[in-house]
Batch of 4 targets.
Target 1
Amino acid sequence: MRNTSNPSQKFVWQQPYNEMNILITNCFINSPSGTETYVYELAIELHNRGHHVEIFTLSMGDLAKSLIENGIHVCTDLKKLKKKPDCIHAHHNIVTLKAAHFFKKTPIVYFIHDRTHFLDYPFRHANILQYVAVDYNCKERYQENGFKNDDIEIIYNWANLSRFKLRKTISAIPRKALAFSNYMSQTNIFPSIKEACLSQGIEIDLIGSGNGNATTTPENILGQYDIIFGKAKAAIEAMATGAAVIVCDFRGLAEIVTPENMLHYRKYNFGMKLMTNKIQTDLIVREIKKYDAENILKVSNFIRKEADFLPIVTQLENTYSRVIKEYNNNKRGKYKLNYYNYLTIIKITFRMIMKIKL
């Protein structure tokens, strides 16, 4: 099916703020996956908008080197930061705790990206003026730990539309598929997907760190495939290119994204909570048979409108600017660091150290 729809109006960013000094924390800046890709794209865009951006992490790899080449200072020592931040965009409780203790008079926006990972256990501190979840599943994690609904903002994941272009034509019949995940391998999950695809005459490839062929340029690859198996941000980026997406990963199998379920799937970040079925060949075949070029285009247009990177960065700028003003007006967070919260994060730190050593 040819894409004849008019592209959404191009987002034109205008400088709404004076330069802000933003510190982003993330446990790892090594390879293109999860929050590391999120931080990479966000840092460069904020830098391009005239803000001073630095990143504090515990581990630097190739992705950190690329950020440095793009003018972003990345370090593993808070004492080596070039400027005192006006606001901290915080991922991961361990590095957030370090940054909060070092910058005792800096407001924090704290994010949860994962419902179950120990690094995303909610951190409490008086300097955190906004708690953010990337979807309703992560919001529920806050609520399970005593946070009130009105104190949590949802800022969804994005697709960088300057990278992920919509293909000119969506094939009427699927011929090529891609399992796009760092968690799949030739012996884990992928065999069932491969069997299902081959039974329908569809070629299938696997890309990801679990297969030893992770990519830093998925925008050059996704447009070659009619169906993509993946989740979360990878799924969003795939839909932005006009691919059909069947949501699945190591947690299980959901459905192919359709105009009927796309709002609900967006609410839960095309992720964990949706994957309630087992990864088995017959169920995957069932989803493949739902392939419909017209529906795929509708989903892609929806994603390209709702998950556009640039307006979401502006939303983040609004949040930073607001909490800076609130902090300067002596507002402090209602969820103070207590002994239980502190002890839990210390245990998490010990757990991670032991995991690295093993």
Target 2
Amino acid sequence: INVPGRSALELKKWSSNSARLMADIAVNDRACDLVNFDDKEGGMVKVLGLRWDPVKDFFGFDVQPVSKVVTKRSVLSTIATIFDPIGFLAPVIFHAKHIMQQIWKAELGWDDPLPTDIVQTWRIFLDDLPVLSRIEIPRCLSTSLKAKVQLCGFCDASENGYAAVVYLRVTSASGQVVVHLLGSKTKMAPMKTSTIPRLELCAAVLLARWLTRLLKVFGDRLIVDEIFAWSDSQIVLSWLINPHTCFKVFVSNRVYLVRQLAPSCQWGYVRSADNPADCASRGLLPSDLVKHVLYWSGPVFLMDPVATWNMSVTSMAIEQLPEAKTISLSVQIKPEVEWCSRFSSYHMIRVVAWIRRLFGRARKQRYTAKNSTNRC
């Protein structure tokens, strides 16, 4: 605090969940008092719409729609006001982006009136948007020195796009298990139609990138013992098990990338009903996200011991998988020919004549030059 002050760079708006630290900060330099019940924000510290309560130590959101006019410009402006760098609100933002993609497909101008069905869908979304203020996300991950830590990721895809969700599973020394949502990543499906298995594979790549990024962020501050990943696509899991050289370029490159990004990751199968990335790949309204227990807490089996998890994958035969590389072989079969066809007719006549003469000699027959010629 004092070092920047010597250069006339005094740090202001300090905030902390530690009362001892805040006691050493001048009142004028604090962002807000720890116990300020008269504040309209209830002691919240706001950063670009993302709120932090220093007393309860949780994150929250404050999203209010600004424009009542529904145009392409106002829709994009509203989506941009939702500040969610970690991805807690990924299913809601994905739903809004899907509406925006429909507007792009309609090829409308920035201020042109939108179709009635899109306007109704967007107004329902706007009316539901203030519900996000109810969300409270604990900041602390409750890790300890002797705790066992696992990264658990899930990926899924739909016709609209694909998503990846990651949880931190912490097992204390006493055996108590706590699961924390670390964040989500989503991407819209391309305008050009793609197959569901390809989108599912793109979701696996997105998850591998997200896991790698989290490992770099944690660094030496948090040692991750194991990494697990799940997908509800048997085709993708079979692609990841088999050599990447057996498939076409699109699949081969992405299978190789997943293995390079997360070589120690253990992949398993999860049912769609237990996959928390399913809602993120389809989109949710804010009111649905608030009460979506599977998304916030993860599937129930994460609370069970790791030894009880079924991580076995039933691999499909390569010839049954899509995108398998076709191998063509050109084989030339030479027909069988008689040995005598290798010689000229004149040579064969002379050979046959000498053979018959040999047989005659063996029978003690005499041949004159004339007789030999007539016989042959």
Target 3
Amino acid sequence: MLVGEALRRAYDGQVVVDVEAVEVCAGVVLALLGPNGAGKSTLMRLLAALESPDSGRLVFKGREVSRDDPELRRAAAAVLQRPYLWRGTVAENVEFGLKVRRLPSAARRARIREALGTVGIGHLSDVPVDTLSGGEAQRVALARALALEPEILFLDEPTADLDVTVRRQLLADLEWIVHHTAPAIVLITHDPGEAFALADRVVVIEGGRIAQTGTPAEIFEAPATEFVASFTGAEFMLSGTLEEAEEGTVIVRLDSGHALECAGCGEAGRRVRVAYRPEDVVLAPPGSPSTSARNRFDAKVARLHPQGGLVRLRLESDGLSLAALITRHSLDDLGLELGTPVVAQVKAAAFHVFPE
């Protein structure tokens, strides 16, 4: 539906977007994921034709378009991180774009009711917008965009400025909305959890460039670079050296002396770093039977950090430090406290190897 090719944009000589290709497809939720300052919002403005690239081109439905192209502008709608609402009631704000498009009054009223109902604020129709909370204001902006029945909906950090409770509620509603409204959605976010929960495909951006593109599962399970692994929640162990490589697995000898069996390939003698996710570390009492996990460490609990319903543990094993993430229920079942011995088990596929 919409393709950006060789898009490049710089401000004051500083390149903020340098993207070879990005595609927005009908029926797909595409997340642009990256840290603050990565160029996500600039790339969104280029894709929405709100801003012109210094070089490259934008193709919409097979036709090259430029800034403020009327067909693309009519097909797209955007919800920004800080919604701008006009003076008046909730309904009047949602109606604004419909009036611009000269819809008959009966059609406007029907769309307003439907849009407000979709985002759960139908009861606020006649309320002045200057009395709304931040979460309610964001829902008005979302309803205003949905009322236009866009072919592409851009969501720029829609939950970033909301408190935890309101953010959780809006995110839950967005999970339904993104799959039942616009044929194509572009979500801009710095939160991997938000991207993985809402998107069909994820574009990870680092320094204005695409680091990896794939499904949430592909990004999560097979990060292409150290940056992608780290940004999406992986821990890094000590550096090491590849000793053996055969049949899709490698042996990495860490500088601590520990040997790890990891999924991957590479040349023996190469220096690498190993990443893993704390939730992939399985804990068991000492003396437990071996499992299919190829890596097994006798460790002790060095630190405990409660995180709501989860507990993050730091484990020490003869100079090797591991993080594990378990439920409070598992913590109680295992009887873990500071100094408790425990067996940590990690499958080879859970270790990701990157060149140092």
Target 4
Amino acid sequence: MILIEAENIHKTFAEGKGGQLLAIEDLSLQIRKNEFVSIVGPSGCGKSTFLLMVAGLERLSQGRLLIEGKPVNGPDHRRALVFQEYHLFPWKSVRGNVEFGPEMRGIARGERRKIGSHFIRLVGLEGFESRYPHELSGGMKQRVAIARALANDPTVLLMDEPFGALDALTRETLQVELLRIWQEAQCTVLFVTHSISEAVYLSDRVVMMSRRPGRIIADVRVDLPRPRTRGLLLSDEFRDYDRQLKKLVWNEFEGDVQ
């Protein structure tokens, strides 16, 4: 089943003195239900802009964008965003942050409690329910942000460089955890990253965008077995995909690579 369908999308931004900046040009993409798809590309190519359009926070200039066959006309709790910055409420505890979405949707306190407990457990933060953001490490804060997003029962989880601010070891740990969470939560993930290795490790497909104006220059299916473990990073199959995608990047941005 096709969940997200983008067709011939263009996005322009107004510049000074009446000018226009073409950020995305003729982007078409289909994403199936429960797929994990990563988008990679250079800074400024429109990756995050496209994510915001799927979220309903940025308007298209031209083209068509459908979720479950319906046009995207604005934000919806079924499309949840996780950013590189955690954007947690500093005055709320872990539980308060995770239960914020259900509370805003009018879900009764007892049911909110069940939802919060489930997702706190899912992200491995049992015992930290009463802690506040300033008492948590960066990795723990990002787990709270993921739990808060999932507590809204999203159809699509939109992740914009969620591990970019973390140290290498924490990043690898959360990559493993994210795959476990995704498989249990059973939702579609659209994941923006600058790391080709991260994209290959996590994804069913890796979509590569060109320099601005951003367009899709490659859509590579990653046929690596699941569930994926850290040991996969050392396999020849993983290295083949990593090398293939890096060559595409180098050829696009630096000329031919042998």
